[in-house]
Amino acid sequence: MAKAKKLPSGSWRVQVYSHTELVYDKSGKPKEKRVYESFTSADPSPAGRKEAEFQAAQFAKDKDGRSKSKLTLGEALDKYIESRSATRSPRTISNYEGIRKNYLQCLMGKNISRITQEDIQKAVNYEALKLSPKTIRDIHGLVSAVFKQYRPGFALDTALPALEKPDLYIPSDEEVKALLNDVRGSEMELPILLSAFGPMRRGEISGLYDKDIKDNTVHVSGNMVKHTERRKIGKGDILLYGGQWLLKRPKNYQGDRYIKYPDYVKQLWQGKSGRIVDLHPDQITDRFRRLIKRIGLPHFRFHDLRHYSASIQHALGIPDAYIMDRGGWGNDAVLKGVYRHAMDSKQEEMNQIANQHFSMLSIANADDLTIELPEYDRETYTKLLYKCCEIIKTYNITDPGKNINNFNRLLEAILSDYGVKNLSAAAQCAQKEIINSYEMGKEELFLIWIPKWFDTIGQFY
Predict the structure, then answer these.
(1) SS3 call for 146
(2) What is the CATH class of 173-337?
(3) How far apart, in whole angstroms, are the C-alpha atoms of residue 27 and residue 41?
(4) Which of 144, 290, 375, 382 is most exposed, with minimal Cβ within 10 Å?
(5) In this predicted model, what pLDDT tens digit does every residue of 38-70 receive, in sequence order?
């Protein structure tokens, strides 16, 4: 407890810490100033001393719920944003200013010392009617930081909406191929490749220079961001949105990284000097939006190409640590969301594989077939067989058992050309005979397989 001191006048005085305010020195540098509340008693006796100390103790006990700051919430937000402008990214500052301008307007004109928890809860409930849970939490997080600085001790206990599972969209291989086929030779080809094969963010792509590239390797060391200009006029601020684009460091420590690209991508930047992609981030977004609409793809963001890249690397068995390093992710939260989406999208395919396996249990073994086969054209089957062998030779499938997925797809495509029904079951039976034939020696493949092929495939024709 603070002790009273006797003044030259004989009165007793006690000073108790009240709050901290942001002030500026003569050079304009911000610094924090501790503000104290004084309590005095004109009674020079010990009783006066006790009176002053009692008032101070009462204030200290109750000060958590009140503040002597004369700032409104809007003014406190402005001062907080100003104090963070040198340490936060321009994008973050722009988001802060957007919150200041657009949300919780019913509280902005109120003195920060008079705002209650009930006031904040009502304002949050109103905004939650039209905003996502994540946006509500961003708004509340900023307001909480402001109260912590300008009204210390007033801890917010606001009930916030539960976070929703993010609805990530991961483009398929077919959709990415459609994009690349359409943009070949255009200004959007390289940005799409850098994002889908990197993966690089749009700001990193716009901030890429020839000096950052050596052979096939890109050093991601810059990020193009839009600067929000603030100009002081009198006592207020005029915020100028849509300012100039600036080259900054990557958004986090992990963002500074090296990415090695395929030779095809390397050919597209060869001979370029200065900026490799002469588009700023908003132009990339606008052109990409028009592109997918024009070619009839489902709506998704340019940023979703990064999710595509992560999902493909995961499917190839690349460890998470390497995927995170290549993509510049600081944690695995994004990867978990990508993998969860990939698992959901594969669920139906996995169900079909399981059901096909169970269905095959009801099909007689090719060696024990006793069914009466329908009439068929032996010449057609022979052509079909040799086409299979030609495909095997072309794709250099020396061991179909080790290339089972690709081999099944090839067989199904061949069978489909000849009108064979129940492709998957037919392909599995054919695959079994091919594997058996390989095990008995490649030179005997045709002699051993042809009779069994005729007997086995007939039931699916």
Answers:
(1) helix
(2) mainly alpha
(3) 39
(4) 375
(5) 888 888 898 888 888 888 887 777 665 455 567
